[in-house]
Amino acid sequence: MSKEEGLSCFGLVVLFVLSIVVASLMNGWALSVLWGWFVSPIFGVPNLQIMEAIGFSLVVGMLTQNTSNKDDDSEKSFGALIVKLLAVAVFKPAFVVFLGWIILKFM
After folding, report:
1. What residue segments make up the domains of the chain, in order of their start?
2. Of 47, 33, 28, 2, nearest to 89 (Cα)?
3. What is the predicted pLDDT for the residue at 5?
């Protein structure tokens, strides 16, 4: 293995770990916001802090995760995989909060 291949592999590992951290933070933030908007007022339960929401999101994700992968990621380019990671880690939770905000305005 050449030095360049080693650095490339290390970069992928760092990117993978960072994407998991960012996805966990964004999902926790989205859950805590939506929980405060919808669950707390309706059911009278306390708001979730972001760390509590991250833990709750991880537990629910572990119990409900779908492992079947219909997309064949092995044929996608590196750039396409980065875009997919960003979409799942950042844009999906942000979009869900945006939709929740719209719904909140109609309540």
Report:
1. 16-59+79-107
2. 28
3. 66
Helix (H, G, I), strand (E, B) or coil at 1: coil
Sign of CA dihedral 36, 38, 39, 42: positive
Rounded (10°) CA dihedral 95, 100, 106, 107: 180
Q: What is the pTM of this model?
A: 0.78
**Given pLDDT bands bounded at 50, 70 and 90, which one contains residue 61?**
confident
The helix-helix angle for 50-64 and 3-34 (nearest 10°) equals: 110
77 has pLDDT over 80 = no
CA within 13 Å, CB half, 32: 14
Under 8 Å between Cβ of 32 and 51: no
Question: Nearest 5°: CA angle at 20, between 17 and 25?
Answer: 130
End-to-end CA distance of the chain: 59
More confident residue, 35 or 23: 35
